[in-house]
């Protein structure tokens, strides 16, 4: 079974997990690892290793982190030791939703598509003044 780790500073990963599970109903393969003031990067390392130790030979692991260059992301780079372990940084809900609902047979393509969806989801929603006549026009 493919596994997904969401890792972040603070409780972001837990919130992302909750959001994705609520929308998709996909429970059990998504793990949230949160580095908090009482949990340093060694917590992320230990929990990730436990997940890897429980993987089958043909399983894949997809690790999503909050942002590149941060201590959480840096800690996870240690685990990129084979082609079946992937690290994607800069996670957002649109990216994760796309990934979880994709066909992971082609991991590279699923990652590329999910990253693109995540990028495209970021946009400014601008104010537009609505004039009453515009509402009633046919």
Topology overview:
Elements: E1 3-9, H1 12-24, E2 30-35, H2 41-53, E3 61-65, H3 71-76, E4 85-89, H4 93-101, H5 107-121, H6 132-136
Parallel strand pairs: 1-2, 1-3, 3-4
Task: Walk me through the structure.
With 138 residues, the protein is of the alpha/beta class. Helices cover 44% and strands 17% of the residues. Helix 1 (12-24) crosses helix 4 and helix 4 (93-101) packs antiparallel against helix 5 (107-121). The longest helix has 15 residues, at 107-121.
Structure described in brief:
This protein has 138 residues and is an alpha/beta fold. It is built from 6 helices and 4 strands, in the order E-H-E-H-E-H-E-H-H-H. Strands 2-1-3-4 form a 4-stranded parallel β-sheet, with helices on both faces.
Integer-rounded radius of gyration: 18 Å
Largest sheet: 4 strands, parallel
Strand tally, please? 4
Order of strands across the widest beta sheet? 2-1-3-4
- How much helix, percentage-wise, in residues? 40-55%
The number of distinct helices, counting runs of at least 4 residues, comes to 6
Topology as a string of helices (H) and strands (E): EHEHEHEHHH
Mean pLDDT: 92
Beta-strand residue percentage: 15-25%
Determine the N-to-C terminus distance: 54 Å
Provide the low-confidence segments as ranges: none
Q: Give the class from helix and strand content and strand pairing.
A: alpha/beta
User: Can you tell me the overall shape?
Assistant: elongated
């Amino acid at each position: 079974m493919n596994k997904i780790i969401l890792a972040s500073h603070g409780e972001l990963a837990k919130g992302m997990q909750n959001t994705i599970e609520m929308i998709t109903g996909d429970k059990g393969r998504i793990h949230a690892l949160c580095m908090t003031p009482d949990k340093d990067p060694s917590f992320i390392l230990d929990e990730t290793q436990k997940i890897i130790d429980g993987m089958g030979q043909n399983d894949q692991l997809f690790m999503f982190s909050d942002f590149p260059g941060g201590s959480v992301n840096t800690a996870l780079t240690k685990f990129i030791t084979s082609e079946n372990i992937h690290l994607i940084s800069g996670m957002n809900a649109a990216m994760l939703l796309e990934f979880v609902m994709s066909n992971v047979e082609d991991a590279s393509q699923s990652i590329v598509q999910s990253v693109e969806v995540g990028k495209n989801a970021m946009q400014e929603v601008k104010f537009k003044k609505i004039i009453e006549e515009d509402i009633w026009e046919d």
